[in-house]
Design brief:
heterodimer, A: Non-ribosomal Peptide Synthetase Peptidyl Carrier Protein, Chain A, B: alpha/beta, FAD/NAD(P)-binding domain, Polyamine Oxidase, Chain A, domain 2, seven-stranded mixed sheet
């Protein structure tokens, strides 16, 4: 999976858990929480969907790495290697 | 009402018969072992089918785990329950109203269909000697009403809300609600009442709880209004059972878990109705104190943890009066939820007094069950109560107090519907003793534990790896939304644990 696809994977999950959010203009470097209406249950859902869709495990001590799209990419690059994007 | 719960309900078991727990007086004998069709091993066993247990079970099943759900009562739902009575009455126990967040949680962890049935209450009313107003309980409307009723500065009320919203579990300043109210609204007992009474009815908390618990719960409510499930509790639980079945969860009611089995310092399964079933993880949706002290047992635990659990206080209990309106009779639309009191001033003590003058009325009109042709009118009153007060009564005194409670409640209702008494054809009361009998909650607890219970609940898996708890704890995890979300949070931890042990 490319870096761009990892971003698409995260945005795809956010679209599914929060259909009312406009995710078309997310700034990758900025914290997701500052741009979208996401609470702690939303972040938990992102973690659970990563596990369900990609078999990727994010222990709770690593949740901070999911703060922005860029930090997600850096953290997930190895874990998502060789996996197919699920639409 | 019969006096079935007077002793404890468990006496019949001493006669050696297996009886169906929760059935009328516990007198229906079981013909089969309720768990005879259970498999020998699961990834997850869930003890208790309250909303936290049901949701935890569903989240684990959708992640592909083999899940078994065990419920002691013959029905599922825990406190999210209902009962039927002759005359076509269906009484909802805890459908009073929940925050908008429930819509999101139902869509994500259950189904779009369930989420679509969540609708806002039209009206909430307050009526007591200090003030009287009607509100939608949205942030905007409620603010308008309190600014007007109490002549407050709007910006100051907004500052109070902002302060509440910023409070986080990991950032607790140790203040009590009383201290916080006295800072923002000094000497204003009427304002304290408006802000505190609904929350006390919702979760049993008093002015002496940590302010953080209030901040989180009030902020959840003070948003888009109060919501309910169109179709009634029975429809909701039926839909949830169907989804669990589709997701392959083995469900057994009348299943009394006796022990959580621990082997080599890890959870190994449960003993239920005399049978051992293996499991890699166990999620207890029973009360946290009974989970630790009764189901696990001290011998498997660190003494400091046992002591910490003993010191956890329960968050009080409730009384309810169930009022059935005769088929064919109607009552006018009063409001959906009425917070009313004839007490001159507000104190947390008065709210849970044996003979409190304060109660809520939940009005259930035919719109509650739009799918029924002959849906009628029912009214459920609730008030806070102390286990000790009701437990201390002799059987005769208990009957007298219950009847007095019913009479006080109907008289109170007559202030709003003068001719209601002649339209009633069913009256029944429940007390902390009733809740204890049906749910097996210690001291009939109807709101889980005080704040300190959350720490014990979250640390349980450190004591016994593989064993988790979800349910009403710590005030912030109570109520329908709190316990549903806590079930999800815990299921996520369990999935991580299962991943680690399989790796």
């Amino acid at each position: 999976m490319t870096d761009e696809q990892i971003k698409q994977a995260i945005v795809g999950i956010i679209n599914d858990i929060n259909p009312d959010e406009d995710t078309s203009n997310i700034n990758s470097a900025e914290r997701l929480r500052d741009q979208l209406d996401l609470d702690s249950m939303d972040f938990l859902d992102i973690v659970m969907e990563l596990r369900k869709r990609y078999g990727v495990h994010v222990p709770d001590t690593d949740y901070e790495h999911l703060a922005s799209l860029d930090s997600c990419v850096a953290y997930l690059r190895d874990k998502m290697a060789g996996k197919e994007l699920v639409s | 009402m019969t006096t079935q719960e007077q002793t404890s309900g468990f006496n019949l078991k001493a006669e050696g018969k297996r009886v169906l727990q929760g059935s009328s007086g516990g007198r229906v004998e079981k013909k089969h072992n309720p768990v005879e069709k259970a498999k020998g091993e699961y990834d997850v066993i869930v003890i208790g089918a309250g909303l936290g247990g049901l949701t935890g079970a569903n989240v684990m099943a959708t992640q592909g785990y083999r899940v078994c759900l065990l419920e002691q009562h013959y029905n599922y739902g825990g406190m999210a329950t209902w009962f039927r009575r002759p005359g076509g009455h269906v009484f909802d126990i805890s459908l009073h109203g929940f925050p908008v967040g429930m819509k999101k949680s139902m869509r994500r962890y259950w189904s779009q269909e369930i989420a679509d049935s969540i609708v806002p209450l039209e009206s909430i009313k307050f009526d007591n000697p200090q003030f009287s107003f009607e509100t939608e309980f949205t942030r905007e409307d409620y603010t308008n009403k309190v600014v007007e009723a109490f002549k407050l500065d709007r910006a100051h009320v907004e500052r109070f809300y902002d302060h509440l919203r910023k409070m986080e579990y990991y950032n607790d300043d140790g203040r009590t609600i009383r201290e916080m109210f006295n800072e923002f609204f000094p000497g204003r007992n009427d304002v304290h009442r408006a802000f505190m009474e609904p929350i006390t009815y919702a979760n049993g908390s008093t002015l002496d709880e940590p302010a953080i618990t209030y901040g989180i719960v009030f902020s959840n409510f003070m948003s888009k209004g109060v919501f309910t499930f169109s179709g009634g509790t029975d429809t909701l639980i039926m839909k949830m059972r169907k989804i669990l079945q589709q997701n392959g969860v083995d469900m057994f009611s009348g299943a009394q878990v006796e022990r959580v089995l621990v082997d080599r310092d890890r959870v190994a399964g449960v003993r239920v109705n005399g049978r051992d079933i293996k499991a890699k993880t166990v999620l207890s949706n029973a009360n946290i104190k009974s989970t630790v002290l009764k189901l696990v047992g001290e011998e498997n635990l660190n003494p400091d943890f046992v002591q910490q659990t003993r010191e956890v206080r329960l968050s009080g209990s409730s009384c309810q009066v169930y009022i059935g309106i005769k088929q064919g009779e109607e009552i006018p639309f009063i409001t959906d939820l009425l917070f009313c009191s004839t007490a001159d001033h507000f104190t947390s003590e008065e709210l849970c007094d044996l003979r409190t003058k304060s109660r809520t009325f939940s009005f259930y009109y035919p719109k509650t069950r739009p799918h029924l042709k002959n849906a009628g009118f029912t009214i459920v009153s609730s008030n806070n109560a102390r286990w000790a007060d009701w437990q201390a009564l002799s059987d005769e005194e208990y009957e007298v107090e219950k009847n007095a409670l019913i009479d006080r409640t109907v008289s109170h209702l007559e202030q709003y519907i003068p001719d209601v008494r002649e339209k009633i054809d069913h009256l029944e009361a429940s007390t902390p003793r009733t809740f204890n009998f049906y749910t097996q909650q210690m001291q009939g607890a109807s709101f889980g534990t005080k704040f300190e219970g959350l720490d014990v609940s979250m640390k349980l898996s450190e004591q016994v790896p593989g064993l988790y708890h979800a349910g009403s704890v710590g005030i912030i995890m109570s109520g329908w939304l709190g316990t549903v979300n806590y079930g999800v949070i815990t299921a996520n931890k369990m999935a991580e644990y299962l991943h680690e042990v399989s790796a």
